[in-house]
TrEMBL record:
Protein name in the entry: CNTLN protein
Gene Ontology CC annotations of this record: centriole; centrosome
GO process terms (BP): centriole-centriole cohesion
Stretches assigned to coiled coil: none
Residue numbers spanned by region Disordered: 1-39
The organism of origin for this protein: Stercorarius parasiticus (Parasitic jaeger)
Source species, domain of life: Eukaryota
Biased composition (Basic and acidic residues): 1-17
The organism's taxonomic lineage, starting at the top: Eukaryota, Metazoa, Chordata, Craniata, Vertebrata
SUPFAM superfamilies found in the cross-reference section: Tropomyosin
Signal peptide: none
Length: 350
């Protein structure tokens, strides 16, 4: 988007310059280079727009996937909350059944106590029967009533027992359902853990590929650095060789000029006067100039500084391509000038 804004700004500036150039008669018309630049900027703007549209479509698809996963998570959470609610209701029902069971047991105890009291009364009546014959009818009636109540209580007891068995069956069913829900929860947890392990494995593989690419890039950068260093050394060595060749050619030309100026007889005469050989006399004449020595030293220092500058550019942060190209072109131009000078000297010597 930032590149798009920069390109739009450049296009607006070009359009404004073209409009101002059309209005003013003194200024010349825009050149073909500006039109080509404008077309290139328009092409870049179209490419950036296409890239932005692609990125927006991918973002939309990713958002849809995230929304689907969030809906799935909500559904699972709602299902879990329903199961928990059902479980709590079943627990309340079990507690109610237990309270009813306790009440029935208490009723059974009271009925047993009443039955025992009735039996004691029957025995007392049987003992008093002999003494109280007049009360036999009333006692028989009371006995019938007592037996009826006993049968009624026995029926109530059997009914309560049947209800208790039914409730025990219901309790067993509830326990089995509870076990099934716990098994379903464990399966859900297992699937979730498997998905998380798969995601972690994919992330590890992606990190391994990125690390391999990074190592390959570092190897390429190191290879490029060695190439640039070797190229600069070779270039500096070739320049130094050309300088030495030029110096040797100049020296040979000076020697030839000196030999032409001095005849062989004068050289022998000077050697006899100085009491030295002709070769020693030539060595004396070939004394190196102090200015030439200083120039050679200065050129060596410049080459050293140039190599240090190349090293600094390679160690500096990006971008460094443009200054590196300028430095190498500068040395190539120097080599070109030296080659021309050497070729001209060789032509003169020939």
């Amino acid at each position: 988007q930032q590149e798009k804004e920069v390109l739009e700004g450049k296009l607006k500036l070009r359009e404004h310059l073209s409009q101002t150039a059309g209005k003013s008669e003194a200024t010349p018309a825009p050149s073909k280079n500006s039109d080509l630049e404008m077309k290139q900027l328009q092409c870049k703007l179209k490419n950036s727009n296409n890239e932005i549209s692609k990125q927006s479509t991918t973002i939309k698809s990713l958002k849809n996937e995230v929304q689907e996963k969030e809906d799935r998570v909500r559904e699972l959470q709602a299902k879990i909350s329903r199961l928990e609610r059902d479980l709590s209701m079943k627990r309340h029902l079990i507690e109610d059944l237990r309270s009813h069971l306790k009440a029935n047991q208490e009723n059974e105890k009271t009925s047993n106590e009443t039955l025992e009291s009735l039996e004691r009364k029957v025995k007392a009546l049987a003992e008093d029967c002999s003494n109280k014959k007049n009360c036999i009818d009333s006692l028989k009636q009371r006995l019938n009533v007592a037996t009826k109540e006993k049968s009624h209580y026995e029926q109530m007891y059997h009914k309560a027992k049947d209800e208790l068995e039914k409730k025990e069956l219901k309790l067993k069913n509830l326990e089995s359902k509870m076990i099934e829900t716990e098994y379903a929860m464990t399966e859900l947890e297992a699937t979730a853990s498997q998905q998380l392990q798969g995601l972690a494995k994919q992330t590890g593989q992606a990190l391994e590929t990125v690390q391999k690419k990074l190592l390959l890039t570092n190897d390429k950068v190191e290879e490029f650095m060695t190439f640039v260093k070797a190229l600069t050394r070779k270039l500096q060595q070739s320049v130094q060789e050309l300088r030495t060749k030029i110096k040797q050619a100049k020296k040979m030309e000076e020697e030839r000029a000196c030999k032409k100026g001095l005849s062989q007889e004068s050289v022998q005469l000077a050697a006899s006067i100085l009491n030295v050989s002709t070769t020693d006399l030539e060595e004396i004449l070939e004394v190196e100039d102090d200015e030439e020595t200083a120039k050679t030293k200065m050129e060596f220092e410049k080459d050293k500084e140039w190599l240090q500058y190349i090293q600094k550019l390679l160690e500096a942060q990006f971008p460094f391509a443009s200054p590196l190209m300028d430095a190498i072109l500068e040395k190539l131009n120097e080599k070109k000038k030296l080659v021309e000078e050497y070729s001209s000297l060789m032509k003169h010597t020939v």
